[in-house]
TrEMBL record:
This is YbgC/FadM family acyl-CoA thioesterase. One of its GO terms (molecular function) is fatty acyl-CoA hydrolase activity. It comes from the Bacteria. Keywords: Hydrolase. It comes from Sneathiella litorea. InterPro entries: 4-hydroxybenzoyl-CoA_TE, HotDog_dom_sf, YbgC/YbaW. CDD domains: 4HBT (cd00586). Its EC number is 3.1.2.-. Belongs to the 4-hydroxybenzoyl-CoA thioesterase family. Gene3D superfamilies: Hotdog Thioesterase. It is an enzyme of class 3 (hydrolase).
Length: 144
């Protein structure tokens, strides 16, 4: 995925607490960057996650996370995480993510996060709501 494949980016600056003994970002922090960027993506779209959970009794469960490490990210680097919806299935949402150097084409990694919409009482998958679909379709083209 190239930088131009994303319409939304969230910035970070690598903190000392995020690096390992080799002075690069510790691998688990990439998922934290992804999770935070997805939250900010929803905020950017005006999505009220807590309201959705209270109103419907449904929430999204993480079922897959994938990180492809391409280049180490060093302490104090300014980075931007690109987020886009790759696909919406009957009950799932697949996010495509990538971390880039701030304002540059340099890509550090790509990733994929898959969520399943789940009834919080039964913990069984439920179809993705139409209001959710409409929210994404107003922002970008989504595969179904």
């Amino acid at each position: 995925m190239a930088r131009q494949d994303y319409r939304f980016f969230h910035p970070f600056r690598v903190r000392y607490s995020e690096i390992d003994a080799q002075s690069v970002v510790f691998n688990a922090h990439y998922l934290t960057y992804f999770d935070t960027a997805i939250t900010e993506f929803f905020r950017h779209l005006g999505y009220d996650h807590q309201g959705y959970v209270k109103r419907t009794g449904k929430d999204f469960h993480l079922v897959k996370s994938l990180v492809l490490y391409e280049k180490p990210i060093l302490f104090d680097a300014e980075i931007e995480v690109g987020v886009r919806i790759e696909k919406i299935g009957r009950s799932s949402i697949t996010f495509a993510l990538a971390i880039f150097a701030k304002g540059e084409e340099t890509r550090y990694c790509t990733g994929e996060i898959v969520w399943v919409n789940t009834d919080q009482t039964t913990h069984k998958p439920e179809p993705v709501d139409n209001e959710f679909l409409e929210l994404f379709e107003t922002f970008e083209t989504v595969k179904k």
